[in-house]
Structure formats: C-alpha cells, structure tokens
Amino acid sequence: MSTGTTTGRYTALQEQHQKLGASFTDFGGWQMPLKYGSELAEHHAVRAAAGLFDLSHMGEVWVEGPEAAKFLDYALVGNLGAVAPGRAKYSLICNADGGIIDDLISYRRPATGKGDRYLVVPNAGNAATVAAELTARAAGFDVTVTDASAATSLVAVQGPAAQQILLKLIPAGHHRTVQELKYYAAEDVEFTFGSGAHKLLLARTGYTGEDGFEIYVPNESAAALWEALLAVGQESGLIPAGLACRDSLRLEAGMPLYGNELSLQVTPFEAGLGPVVSFKKESDFVGRSALEARKAEGPKRRLVGLRGLGRRAARSHYPVLKDGAVVGEVTSGQPSPTLGYPVALAYVDAGLAVPGTRLDADLRGKAEPFEVVELPFYKREK
C-alpha cells in the first residue's frame, strides 16, 4: 500500500477520518484511512474489544426481477437460487476461462412486487468491473442490475464487543433481531442516531476472524452514524481502525485478498475455493466448462498457510524454496500480532501443500524456515 499519493476518490467519511488524524493510502482507486495511530493497537482492539471501519469503497450492486435467482446462478459460480431470503453467500464471478474476476458476497433480500432481490457486494477495485460484467451478462434475463455504489456507505463494527455496542443505537424492540442474526445473514434494522430513526441493512459477515457487523447506510447519513458509534462504543473499547490492521486481521484469519491471493490468473481450485463452485446446478454458468476441466486435471499449485519457524517475516512476492529450488511464491505475509510469530499465504507446488511440510522463504537472499499449516492461523473462541 502506498501512502505517497493524494489522488483518488474519497468516501463520505473523509472529514471524520481527517479529524481523527488518519494517515491515508490509495486502495482500489480510493483514498482510505491506513491507520489512525498505532496499527498494532487497532489490531489488538479488534481482537479484544472492537474496531470501527469505513468500508465505503466496496461496491453495492442490486439485482432485482422475476429471474434474479436464475440470472445470478448463470453469472456466478455459486448456487444463489438456493439462498434463503435474509441469508448471504460467498461466491465468485469468473471469466469463461475460469479465472477469478472477483470474490464477493451476495445477500438475498425479501422479494418485492418486481420479483426476487439480491445485493451483490464486490471489492473496491473491482466494483465497476463487476457491475459492468453483471449488466452485460443480464442480457436475455428478466432482471434489472443497478449499481448503487456511489450513493452507499458501508460501516463495520468488528470485535467481541460489536453486538453490545450496536444495541445501544437500536430500540429495545429490535434487540432480539440483532442478537439472533446468524453469521452470513442480514436484516433491515431500525437505528436511532443523529436526526432520529433510520432503517438500515445490517449484515453479520466479517473479514477479521471476529464477530462483527456491517451497516449499509446512505451517504448522507454515514457521518452521523459513524459519530454515534464512536460515542456509544468508547466505554466498550471501540476505536477507529484502518486498512493496515484490517489486512493483518484477515491474514491471521486465512482470508484471501483480491490482487494478492486471487486474480484472473487463478482458478477457484488453486485458491482452495473449489467448494464455492456449484456443479450441482443444472443450468450453465459462465466458466463452467473450463472449471470442470480444471477440476478434473487437478491444480498444479495450491494456496497454503505458512507458519514462520524463525523471527523474520516473508512478504508478498518473496520466492518459496524447497531444498534451494523455487517451488512457489508468497502472496501475503507479516508478523502476526495475535500469535507472536510470522505467518504467510503462498502458492506452492501441489505436492508440497501437505501440513507439516518444511519450506523456506527467500528473504532477500537468506533462506528463512517455514512450515505448511492448516488455515486459519487464528480462530476465535465461540
């Protein structure tokens, strides 16, 4: 992440970030808060209490119509038609060759008079690409694709104290809805802040390895919501958190990042996302034939977790070695603040992906020992 540029788009919370003293970085064409003070303090706050994130750079694409489910089953590799209203599904949008255009979450909302309705959430740098791709793939389907990204902000509260913090802004009559909201589910919930009551979409689909929530809010109400959450969350240990700790948190949780672990050059099977692809669907979907062939032949390389056996961390693009020969490449890596040792994700030759395999990372000419381990590196206690 580069912090030397001031170009790019800004979220509706830019003024709030500046007041809090955030340092900024370019991410997916957006100027986003990298950290507000200590990235380690922000990381530990999310693990022990809660962090407040601005994720407004993410995309929001609405898909609605009588054939919305049928269309998404064609456009994405997952079985979106089987998702119940109120639930969500992690999926991928692939090209005809099976390469990953983006990984995304799709929320099925209650049907309206216009038909079934889904909210598809792509990553920041791919939001426009995904919206355009969905629009193009919608030809021939009775469905409307609407890109609402520019009008929508996304605020997340992540950490073990997230629920108790949110309940302070929610009327008592809605508390049970929040308390019973399952992982990978979403509901419209009434919040009270700023000028009064606001009905907002609340989701429970985190990217940190902790319990947490995401709130979809119109841009014009985002600042008031942010300020209200900071105010009520202070006594519970809530602090604003930037992209630096979000990256270390998701790495500990073994979650892939597009542009690092996922790309057009990677298929779901290499990335360990084979179960996301639904070949049980009777209908065709974009990339199906290519993915069937890739599954049959098996991946030549696999994404693995690497635990450092020394003190030095491997970084993105560092070569992975076996007996001095290059057998892979690190995609993400850094010291784990929670675990106290270096961790990394890397693509290695498929035959070396077995947990317990000893490998080395080439740290600028010096071989540093690592061991293949099961993911995730960190798993919270329930």
How would you concisely characterize the structure shown here?
This protein is α+β, with helices and mostly antiparallel strands. The chain has nine helices and 19 strands.
Give the topology string: H per helix, E per strand. Answer: HEEHEEHEEEHEEHHEEEHEHHEEEEEE
CATH superfamily of the largest domain, by name, is: Probable tRNA modification gtpase trme, domain 1
Low-confidence segments, ≥5 residues, pLDDT <50?
A: 1-5
Q: Supply the helix-strand structural class.
A: alpha+beta
Mean pLDDT: 96
Q: How would you sum up the global shape?
A: globular
Strand content: 25-35%
Q: Report helical residue fraction.
A: 10-25%
Task: Please describe the biggest sheet, giving its number of strands, its sense, and whether it closes into a barrel.
Answer: 6 strands, mixed
- Under CATH, the topology of the largest domain is which? Gyrase A, domain 2
Under CATH at level 1, the class of the largest domain stands as: Alpha Beta
N-to-C terminal Cα separation, in Å?
33 Å
Task: Estimate nothing, just give the exact number of structural domains.
Answer: 3
Name given to the CATH architecture of the largest domain: 2-Layer Sandwich
* Total helical segments: 9
In spatial order, strands of the major sheet run 10-11-12-9-3-13
Count the strands? Answer: 19
Calculate Rg over CA atoms.
21 Å
What does this structure look like?
By secondary structure, the protein is α+β, with helices and mostly antiparallel strands. The protein has three domains: 14-56 and 151-251, Probable tRNA modification gtpase trme, domain 1 (Gyrase A, domain 2); 61-145, Alpha-Beta Plaits (2-Layer Sandwich), CATH 3.30.70; 300-382, Beta Barrel (Elongation Factor Tu (Ef-tu), domain 3). 21% of the residues lie in helices and 34% in strands. The protein contains nine helices and 19 strands. It has helices at 14-19, 39-48, 68-75, 127-137, 162-166, 175-179, 219-233, 243-252, 288-297, and strands at 23-27, 30-35, 50-54, 61-65, 88-94, 100-112, 115-121, 144-147, 152-158, 186-193, 196-203, 212-218, 238-240, 301-308, 319-322, 325-335, 342-349, 358-363, 366-373. The strands form four sheets. A six-stranded mixed β-sheet has the order 10-11-12-9-3-13, sandwiched between helices. Helix 2 crosses helix 8 (243-252). The longest helix is centred in the middle third of the chain and has 15 residues, at 219-233. Residues 1-5 have low confidence and may be disordered.
